[in-house]
Amino acid sequence: MPRIEDYALLGDLQTAALVERGGSIDWLCFPRFDSGACFAALLGDADNGRWSLAPSAAATSTRRYLHDTLVLETTWQTEGGSCARVIDFMPPRGKEPDIVRIVEGVKGRVHFRSELTIRFDYGRIVPWVRKRTHEADTRIALAGPDALCFRTRAETRGENMTTISEFSVDEGERVPLVLTWFRSHEDPPEPIDPEQALADTEAFWRGWSDACPLDVPKEWAPLVRRSLIVLKALTYDPTGGIVAAPTTSLPEWIGSVRNWDYRYCWLRDATLTLLALLHCNHADEAGQWRRWLIRALAGDPADVQIMYGVGGERRLDEFELPWLDGYEGSRPVRVGNAASGQLQLDVYGEVLDCFYQARVHGLPVDPQGWRIQLGLLDHLEEAWREPDDGIWEIRGERRHFVHSKAMSWVAFDRAVRSVEDYGFEGPVDRWRAVRDEIHADVCERGYDSSLGSFTQSYGSPELDASLLLLPLVGFLPGADPRIRGTIEAVERELLQDGFVLRYRTHEAVAGSFAGKAGEARPEDRAPGGAPSVDGLPPGEGVFLPCSFWLCDCYELLGRHDDAHELFARLVALGNDLGLMSEEYDPRTERQLGNFPQAFTHLALVNTAFNLAPHLPSPMYRRHAQRHPE
Predict the structure, then answer these.
(1) Residue (of 292, 280, 623) closest to 479 by Cα position
(2) Strand runs (DSSP E) across 445-530, as ranges?
(3) Cα-Cα-Cα-Cα dihedral sign, residues 220, 223, 226, 232
(4) How many CB atoms sit inside 10 A of residue 109's CB?
(5) Are 514 and 533 in contact (CB under 8 A)?
(6) What distance in Å separates the CA atoms of residue 470 and residue 451, rounded to the nearest whole number?
(7) What is residue 479's three-state secondary structure?
(8) Could you give phi then psi for residue 321, rounded to 5 degrees?
(9) Which fold has domain 211-623?
């Protein structure tokens, strides 16, 4: 089974595919990110759908993205010295989505074999496949609402519910293979010109990347640019929503049950997304993201969810797919996300901060956006006092999480500043009073003087990496002894192999906390391996965004060498194409969790700007406006 980091990303701004080093597309959902997969081998085996394309004989491969694009080039070298390339890409969406593979001979003759195994509905449905009588190079696969059109001039045949193509390429010869999704009740789409599609795809991505002048150290520019391309690829272009990842159920610990569907849009990513795009001169995408937020938030403020579908859908019912064995046996495989119904108060602060930062950066004001914010603030005036499920989406007892309370403070702080700095109308005196009340409450009930640190939740001695955000959002200045003590406590308790855990979990004992993720490693378990308080067994890797937050805190405290050293170690964890998942296991040196992960790439971009020798950085825009140092 390929490792998670063995995959490359393809995308057309509405869905995405994962291609492993050996030339197999093991994951692809049509027509949207959250649609049923027609290739689901990533979470099962080859019979659950894949498209393999590689030399028939033994060969070694190297790969790269062409220039600053999402066009993947894999070069194959045979033992006899012959050489060929495979160029994989998804053209920016026309009427229907395409995935194109062009095989090019470079030296000598190379024999290739393509195995196209189509299984609709996440590897469950075997389609009916037939040749088109008037198009010899075309096969149609359909079942229910879905259909795929496969075109190639290479000779094809059916074998064991798989479409096989075998052909050779000589030096300078190019053989295209094109797969196109369409609705089964419609006529198959007209064929595209693969070479023109390649030229158009390269031009699109290079034009988009060139529009972004990066004011970061030269050695970081490729990493930042690749992360921005990932964020663009995870954007659902018709609406502007950005999914957390293109995959579901890649495990946070190999063999665990903590496998979640990330093909949705989290409000928690709002501010970091906006800052990353605006710092890189992508104002159109930032504006589109803000408009998506406004549409998603419309309605009763009490009904605000932590995540939505790419079109703003609210019903994300979670269910399991028992016919899939899971990645390396990590079951169950889940579709939908029950956390969409949780209460997470921090999202109110993220949303208000996102709109405020948009004003700071000069995006045109949207009057409807301010009306929505007024409604959110009215609701939050009382809601902030309630316990919630927290940033890590626990599936257990609600608590008074320090991070949630602090982000509620952010909501009222940004509302007050919107009135003071930009002349918006609102009950500013009342907001100031609520803001000050929340601040005092957190400092009194969320700080443990015996630990010299803020804690994960009121009355708990546990630490949480989300506390690193307190200075970054301006709750307290970095020089405050309580912030310095908190950062030192995180270093002392949550660093593992030099990277940051979300928190250390324990078994279900009084006063402990366990959540959706961040659980203890196997060696942390009590005898018998009792489950955590949310009923799920512990175990996960270090959480990469939290480690980037520690970089930011180091920089805020003037620990520049520590910040740069940790940043260098973090970016080195990316795969050979610069792609990163949510988590990492330092012992086995492998990536974990859904891939590639928007939150990680967002953190990378913003930290790169935070560490760059210039101001204003994203961190200082959020921090120093309130606490100039």
Answers:
(1) 623
(2) 447-448, 453-454, 495-496, 499-500
(3) negative
(4) 14
(5) yes
(6) 17
(7) coil
(8) -115, 90
(9) Glycosyltransferase (1.50.10)
Q: Is residue 486 within 8 Å of residue 470, measured between CB atoms? A: yes
Q: What is the pLDDT of residues 250-301, one digit of tens each?
A: 999 999 898 999 999 999 887 788 888 888 888 888 889 889 999 999 889 9
pLDDT for residue 614: 66
Q: Please answer whether residues 91 and 102 qualify as being in contact, where contact means their C-beta atoms are separated by less than 8 angstroms.
A: no
Q: Is 180 helix (H, G, I), strand (E, B) or coil?
A: strand
pTM attached to this predicted model: 0.93
SS3 assignment, position 322: coil
Contact 308, 295 (CB under 8 A): no
Pairwise CA distance, residues 318 & 235, whole Å: 22
Residue 297 to residue 309: CA distance in whole angstroms = 12
Query: Residues spanned by CATH 1.50.10.10 within the chain?
Result: 211-623
Residue 427 neighbours by CB distance under 10 Å: 15
445 Cβ contact list (under 8 Å, min separation 6): 400, 458, 459
**Contact status, residue 376 vs residue 304, Cβ threshold 8 Å:** yes
Per-residue model confidence (pLDDT) at position 133 = 72
Residue spans of the chain under pLDDT 70: 505-538, 614-617, 621-629
Please say whether the dihedral angle defined by the alpha carbons of residues 232, 238, 244 and 247, taken in this order, is positive or negative. Answer: negative
- What does each C-alpha distance from 52 to 55, 78, 88 come to in angstroms? 10, 17, 12
Q: Specify the domain boundaries for CATH 2.70.98.40 within the chain.
A: 4-208
Q: Are 519 and 509 in contact (CB under 8 A)?
A: no
Structure tokens at 58: 């033994």
Q: What is the pLDDT of residue 30?
A: 97
- Quick one: 4-208 is in which CATH superfamily? Glycoside hydrolase, family 65, N-terminal domain (2.70.98.40)
Both tokens assigned to 544? 């990469």
What per-residue confidence (pLDDT) applies to 247? 98
